[in-house]
Amino acid sequence: MLVKVVAVLLLVGCAYAGISHVSSSQGGGGGGGHGGHHIIEFYTFPHYEYKYEVHDPKHHDVHEQHEKRYGDKVEGEYSLHEPDGTIRVVKYEADHKNGFNAIVERKGHAVHPEIEHHHHH
To answer: Where is the signal peptide (predicted)?
Structure first.
């Protein structure tokens, strides 16, 4: 599981990155005042989409997420099963102009175990 999360984070990190590369030319004199060095910049337009789900009944871990990004606009949703039996659903979006905005919803009814009290006489 950790490997999948790291792989997704690396993918997201690469989508955010603008990459610069500096190269130098060998030889005499070249470059017209730049010392024989020139900078080449590469920029990849951020665009990705991913989805994952975890359903682990042994550890009661059930959650999922999906997200997509196109340029500076990110939209996504995730949900998880809470220990009280409810499901939390978070829908979010973010962009350069409005920042991060989320709507959190709770579905279902919370159930808590009964606690027995023993009185000693």
So the answer is: 1-17
Q: Which residues of 5-14 are buried (b: 16+ CB within 10 A; e: fewer)?
A: eeeeeeebee
- Residue 25 gets which letter from DSSP? -
Strand bridging mode 47-56 / 61-70: antiparallel
Is residue 65 situated within a structural domain?
yes
pTM of the entire predicted model: 0.58
Give me the number of domains the chain comprises: 1
Identify whether 57 is part of a domain. Answer: yes
**Which residues touch 117 (CB under 8 Å, ≥6 apart)?**
none
**35-90 confidence digits (pLDDT tens):** 677 888 788 889 999 999 999 989 889 999 999 999 999 999 999 999 899 999 99
For residue 39, give Cα distances in angstroms to 23, 24, 101.
Answer: 6, 9, 38
